[in-house]
Design brief:
The protein is mainly alpha-helical. 72% of the residues lie in helices and 9% in strands.
């Protein structure tokens, strides 16, 4: 589809979707579904660009293939399990690093966040692969 209105609108809507994806990832990493919902929102922003332009044009503009997004996601998911395995604790036990930031206070970074970021990238890759394969089949 080469709609001029959709091409203009997708620039703004994609930005909004990506902002909400980052918010969902940051807010949801301590709750179920944070990385998954954020990945769907970010993947949807890429799908929207695929609707606005031709799929081949969008695929050429993307710097990374869907497979590389999925590989990075799987790597991060597996990396989030390493601290518990190396410590001899139960599988996927959460570990946190507490940082004291001058104006923000205490910031807790942990293995659940690494896991959610891995899910985030994996879902982006699967969404892109799924959508682009369907659009090419048409």
């Amino acid at each position: 589809m080469n709609s001029a209105i959709l091409q203009i609108a997708q620039r703004y809507v994609r930005f909004i979707l990506l902002v909400f994806a980052v918010i969902a990832l940051a807010r949801g990493h301590n709750y179920p579904g944070g990385g998954f919902i954020a990945g769907l929102l970010a993947g949807l922003s890429m799908v929207l660009k695929g609707f606005a332009y031709d799929v081949e044009v969008v695929a050429k503009q993307m710097k990374f293939s869907p497979e590389s997004f999925m590989a990075l996601g799987i790597f991060l998911i597996l990396a989030s399990t390493l601290p518990s395995m190396l410590d001899g604790a139960s599988f996927m036990t959460g570990y946190w690093l507490k940082l004291e930031l001058p104006l923000l206070g205490e910031l807790k970074l942990g293995t659940p966040l690494v896991f959610d970021i891995g899910v985030f990238f994996g879902v982006i890759g699967i969404t892109r692969l799924f959508f682009f394969s369907i659009k090419r089949a048409e």
